[in-house]
Specification:
Keywords: Membrane, Transmembrane, Transmembrane helix. With 256 residues, this protein is mainly alpha-helical. Helix content is 75%, strand content 0%.
């Protein structure tokens, strides 16, 4: 066998090994990418379903239920080719198509939740943040028209305001019932300040007037009681202040 032929065979062998390694790398990368997509779509699908079922009834509407069902269906349909043997997923797709076919008559069975403690308000705020994230990302991926996304971003902001206003009002009214006018005054003051900070205060004019009336009532009761101590209820103060703050996500533009 000539040296030239031997050299050619060696070069061919090396090229074959490189080609095999390259192909194996492509296959492995493809598997990893599909696994990443499955995990991402499964997570988004799960979050849609959780929000649709657990968001408080006072915030859930047929239109919002339809939005979440539509997004969940899109995620499920994108996931199915990556998980073809998933019978549960196929059943869920059929169920979602059935729900969407009902339009505005889609059933809304979410139970209302009373927001009377910081913990419950934080949980709802976390849910709204998750909803905001789903809407913004869906718009970025052209799964949701830009105008629809802008509408829902505005709706989510209003739901956040309603949640915080409900908290301030309930905390204040409970304090009045428990003959704690100073704590009630604190809650109503926070409510007034919070509503006055909104970009569209006219939308909340009625709520602001109600809080101002409640604040005046609490002030009158404070004057009727003994001189207040210097110590305000620290836990209540910090809790209300934490919910008064606006998160960055609330102000995020869907075009960022």
């Amino acid at each position: 066998m000539s040296p030239l032929l031997i050299t050619g065979l060696i070069v061919a062998g090396i090229a074959l090994l490189i080609a095999i390694a390259y192909i194996n790398n492509l296959v492995e990368n493809s598997k990893l990418e599909k696994a990443r997509q499955r995990a991402d779509l499964s997570d988004r699908l799960r979050r849609c379903a959780d929000l649709s079922e657990t968001l408080p009834g006072q915030l859930m509407t047929p239109a919002l239920k339809l939005l979440l069902s539509r997004l969940e269906l899109q995620f499920a349909e994108r996931l199915l080719p990556l998980d073809k043997g998933n019978a549960t997923l196929k059943t869920r797709i059929d169920a979602l198509n059935g729900l969407l076919a009902q339009g505005e008559s889609i059933p809304v069975r979410n139970a209302p939740q009373t927001v009377a403690a910081e913990a419950s308000a934080k949980e709802i705020r976390f849910q709204l943040e998750g909803l905001h994230g789903l809407v913004v990302r869906s718009a970025q991926e052209n799964l949701l028209p830009a105008n629809d996304a802008k509408h829902w971003v505005k709706e989510i902001r209003q739901m956040l305001v309603r949640t915080n206003v409900e908290l301030f009002g309930n905390v204040g009214k409970q304090a009045l019932q428990q003959n704690q006018p100073r704590q009630a005054r604190l809650a109503f003051e926070r409510g007034v300040q919070y509503l006055r900070k909104q970009n569209d205060p006219g939308t909340y004019k009625a709520q602001l007037q109600q809080f101002e009336q409640l604040l005046a009532r609490a002030n009158a009761l404070v004057l009727e009681t003994a001189k207040p101590t210097d110590d305000e209820p620290t836990e209540l103060t910090e809790g209300l202040k934490s919910l008064e703050d606006e998160d960055d996500w609330k102000k995020k533009n869907i075009y960022d």
